[in-house]
Amino acid sequence: MKRLLCLCAGLLLMSTLPWLTAARNDAPSPEKLGYNPSFEVTYFSSLEYRYLLSELLFYDAAFYYGTIIETPGQRPDYIMMGRYIDYATRLNAFNIDAYYLGQAILVWEGGLVKDMNVMLERGFKRRNWDFYLPFFLGFNHAYFLNDPQGAAQYMSQAAKLNPRMTFLPTYVGRLYYEADKTEQAIQYLKVVYEGTFDQKLRKSILVRISTLESIQFLEGAVRKFEQKTGRRPAELDELVTAGILKGIPPDPYGGRFYYDRSDGRVKTSSKMALQGAKNDRH
């Protein structure tokens, strides 16, 4: 009896094996990124094919990401993707597609801002003619790391490399101001003004310089008020009533200057963008 039962079970299993095999073959396996050895091993074993390997690593990472995001319930392994992109950019510092992929995916979705910045800084040492890398670095420092001074330094390099991006110089000026480096912002803009013949850019720079000089002037008046009264003003009008100023200068952008007691800075309601204009946002 036992032998009969075992025989029946065996026959049943054998009859279902082809169906299970077909089902397994038809089911798509989840895409994975394989393990890579250390970069040193990868570099030396790639020999003269390291540029080709750089491209293959980039395409593997891009294909993996595209497959995963189309699979419900799957989340990309951003750490492993970062490893692939890191290797790709180290094997070939001129693989610009790898930097684009890393900036778009690792930074915005994976939150690996500092990791990507390391790759961008390393790449910029080789691609020192490419404005995209300092531009990405400047954006990351401004938007993700809340570091306006670092952002200004990178953005000023990007502006120098690509003068056609005429919005960058005034944006750099604002970043230096946000970093409490108003004098540095003014001097930077004056240098750019003297070095360009673009009349539209020169006009926008003059407006930005005028605004920053007014802010610098008002902040100096605030310090005089503090020395005179021993306290911070509640608003800028107190500088007039105290006899320190005859009046508050107008904001060239059409807003109004005000004093922010939380950080002791003079600011403008226009945020240095022409009121009613859509083109000047920086």
UniProtKB/TrEMBL annotation:
Q: Does the keyword Methyltransferase apply?
A: no
| Signal is among the record's keywords | yes
What name has this protein been given in UniProt?
Tetratricopeptide repeat protein
Superkingdom of this protein's organism: Bacteria
Query: What are the record keywords, sorted?
Result: Signal
The protein's organism comes out as Geomonas terrae
- Which positions make up the signal peptide? 1-22
